[in-house]
Design brief:
The chain is of the alpha/beta class. The protein contains ten helices and eight strands. It has helices at residues 3-6, 24-40, 56-65, 81-87, 127-135, 196-199, 207-221, 230-241, 251-254, 263-266, and strands at 45-49, 73-78, 95-99, 112-116, 149-155, 161-168, 171-179, 258-262. The protein has an eight-stranded mixed sheet. Helix 2 (24-40) packs across helix 3 and helix 7 crosses helix 8 (230-241). The protein is globular. It starts with a helix and ends with a helix.
Length: 270
Amino acid sequence: MTARAAARPIGTVTRGTTNPNRLRRMDRWIVATHGAELRRADEALAVDLGYGAAPWTAVELLARLRTVAPRACVVGVEIEPARVAAARPYEREGLVFRHGGFEIPVPQRPSLIRAANVLRQYDEARVAEVWARLCGRLAPATDLSRGGLLVEGTCDEIGRRHVWVALGPEGPRTVTFAARLGSLERPSDLAERLPKALIHRNVPGEPVHTFLRDFDRAWAAAAPYASYGARQRWIRAVRELTADWPVVDGPARWRQGEVTVEWGALAPLG
């Protein structure tokens, strides 16, 4: 293998669809749940992997992370060279853009890798391989830290509906469902935004299908709370879910239109 071939980025070019503020729900969750880790890091490096045809999501990620970790820096990584060239004028202190892929072309191990709408276009069979590669690039766990965080998931074009998996150096930890509640008829509307690891598993007999079925039932049972607004109905439905599912967050996150569940409860069978 030649040196040139060895340096070729790992991955394939995606459609590059992006919009300003598209990833606000994911960013808000990262700031709330991983902000303390970023603040403690000697070098709080975050990677926006596959930011797309325009650099908006990387620019926004830096601004949001710095509300909790003022020393945070962001590297936007794209496999399409033309997108990197187009993003370069937006570089500033704490924000740079690099050509690359799943190898994550940065010198140190990141405290955060965000990969939104990247694996959607890959085969399900490749997910475990990509996850392992990316988790292997994260900052390792120590006595004082759980290590870096990989957030991988999917959202709609304007960021109303998200589902993402959070992974540490050891592998997957949780799955988060997040939505603008006024856009939902029922929680299972989020099924169309399941990440690649789960979207083909939304069939009878698979845990994620059972979870969404139970969520819809809890939502229906919470209908009387709709008179107080969709947020109160969501909170009541999630509280009902906690009787049978390992929900790991609480009302402060539920009020944001979120719920986070242990990965092991939703992981595909087999």
